[in-house]
Amino acid sequence: MRNCGIKFSHNNSITLLKTGQEKFDDLFKAIRQAHKSVHLEYFNFRNDSIAGLLFKILEEKAHQGVEVRALFDAFGNSSNNRPLKNKYLDKLRAKGIEIYKFDPITFPWINHVFSRDHRKIVVIDGKIAYTGGMNVADYYINGTKEVGEWHDMHCRIEGDEVNTLQKIFLKMWNKVTGQNIHGPQYYRGATNADYIKGLKPDLCESAGNKMIGIVNREPHTSNKIIRQFYLAAINDAQDSIKIINPYFTLNHDIKKALKNAVKRGVKVDIMLSIRNDIPLTPDCGFYNAHKLMKAGCNIWMYKPGFHHTKIIMVDGRVCTVGSANLNARSLSWDYEDNAVIIDKCTTQELDNMFDTEKANCFRLTQERWDKWRDPWQKFRGWFGHLLAPFL
């Protein structure tokens, strides 16, 4: 990954936030203690109770003189069922919150479908940062009627990789707004934000000494970087691979790498949800899962709700938490960021979560496949896989 331009630092702590409640409790507590700046970049803010509470806290911080900047994706906003309206945005700006859309949607509309800003980044005082798979929405806590429970992952980082996430945010901010926000006050110096208290701790012995790198995908500049990470992780695996991902449309190289890993004797476990929030894409994922099952992968189908989590764990030593799905949008089109963590303790925590979640799954077998998927559903999966480069 260094050869691909990814920089790693060794002085980080990382705290896994494995539920929506954990993420928002931790994030809101940290924002309330901000002294200088709060920067947020999300695919969307759903206009519901969680976003309302967040903006109320941000309004209070702006009133205290804290610089508050927020970005969201225009297409992501319009595609959710509770979008932020322009009148509401004007009210937020009047209260001191600078908030902008990335790539506002204009005629002919279709040109805005690709290269969306799918990142989820928050940086507070340049000292601590959050990233992962969750947008701002109450369904991460309450679930939805359509899919039931909604599971996802986030993490909080303290250490030099906060600077990397801040750099990513400010580059996008200046691009969108035409401003030129920069300076050492936005970056971490020699110390962390010890004045921010009461957050969930990193309990690993390696806390403060974890090796982390941020994989940042930008169209035209680092198009292949997410694919390169996943291929390197899978191809270098010697013992085990565990994957949870919601949109499992894959590409040829990743499918081939997973099959080759099994041939090398690597134990490959993949967890997918039987429920999903969009059409056709899950059918393509089920088709791929069936093919990989026949190649020797262990496929676990999660039943209680929708697992929107995007993680991989390799050999109990390396893992990632981030925004990138294993679909064409994340691998070939959108702005994404993933934290790559080289740490046994953090990886073990995710391994343990995976093993616990297996109790809520059924293991895919040929017999179960034939009972679960009727001929029409199997056809949809086959048809969907033909469209994988666009899903």
UniProtKB/TrEMBL annotation:
Record keywords, A-Z: Cell membrane, Membrane, Repeat, Transferase, Transmembrane, Transmembrane helix
EC number of this enzyme: 2.7.8.-
Main location: membrane
Domain PLD phosphodiesterase: 113-140, 303-330
Domain of life the protein comes from: Bacteria
Subcellular locations according to the entry: Cell membrane
InterPro entries assigned: Cardiolipin_synthase, PLD-like_dom, PLipase_D/transphosphatidylase
PROSITE patterns (UniProt xref): PLD
Gene3D superfamilies: Endonuclease Chain A (3.30.870.10)
Full protein name: Cardiolipin synthase
Taxonomic source organism: Prevotella herbatica
